[in-house]
Amino acid sequence: MPPASPTAEAGFQPFSLFAPAKVNLALHVLGRRADGYHDLDSIVAFADVGDTLRFTPAAEFTVTADGPFAAALPAQAGNIISKAWEAAVAIAAGRGLTLPPVAVTLTKNLPVASGIGGGSANAAAALRGFLRLAGVTEIDGGITAAGLAIGADVPVCLAGITCRMQGVGERLTPIGGLGPWQAFLVNPMVAVSTPAVFGRLGLARGQSFGAPIADETEPLSWRNDLAPAAIALSPVIGEVLERLARAPGVTRAFMSGSGATCVALCEEGAPLPDLDPSWWAVRTVLGISS
């Protein structure tokens, strides 16, 4: 058994970490690789809205949830935070450290399966928090690789800055000089299956699809290649985009990730559009650093 880290021996004071929403400003699908994964070229930014994780000392590792979308989460055994715990235990053990038992309370403010990286952001924040308890504060290549094994968006959420994300999510290039952007996030409260959206593209292994991002500085040239497939599966996404596109002060409306959350970049002070009251809608700023 590896020796306990000084942090683990001394116990710790409860602390909280913010898990910001991740927005795909661009999501170009370049094709499907021979291994079955889709090759992507994406520009990702982070919002000032998101979930929160609180870490407190405990007799054993547990995960509980509260907040408006807590009921939609899986049980602890299948939760992505539990996967982050297992990864953190393995990373710590490989460095001769152990983790103290901890109770995690997730305040779930973002809709589930909504295309804004809520689960991946939670996993990244959890991984950071767990490793902090072992005295590991720098995110290195080994930790990023462990994050990628949890989910394709976890590495960019670990980075927490505006990035160009390529491959399946493993190649990250920070982008300076973009943003911040005033924006609205709107979700019509339909859960969209990412595998179903990619499946709708119907790409064979080795088949090419779209062109990569030509200009990192020109938002009007960006697109989301998953939007038509998501709209075909959930037509209400198209309705959201239409309403946002014609709203006063909106400069660009697009879908994030595989949906169903839609994004409207807008002028400062633009009023929140008149939307269906059953939809989730928030005003936010994109381009923050987590």
Characterization of the model:
The protein is an alpha+beta fold. It is built from eight helices and ten strands. Strands 1, 2, 3, 4, 5, 6, 7, 8, 9 and 10 form a ten-stranded mixed β-sheet that branches. The longest helix has 16 residues, at 118-133. The model is unreliable at 1-10 (pLDDT under 50).
List keywords for this structure.
single chain, 290 residues, alpha+beta, 27% helix, 29% strand
Portion of residues in helices? 25-40%
Q: Enumerate how many helices there are, as a single number.
A: 8
> What structural category characterises the helix and strand content?
alpha+beta
Gyration radius from CA atoms, angstroms: 19 Å
Biggest sheet architecture: 10 strands, mixed
- Head-to-tail CA distance between termini: 34 Å
Give the averaged pLDDT, no decimals. Answer: 93
Number of DSSP strand runs: 10
Shape descriptor reads globular
Query: Which regions contain 5 or more consecutive residues with pLDDT less than 50?
Result: 1-10
Strand content: 25-35%
Order of helices and strands: HEEEHEHHHEEEHHHEEE
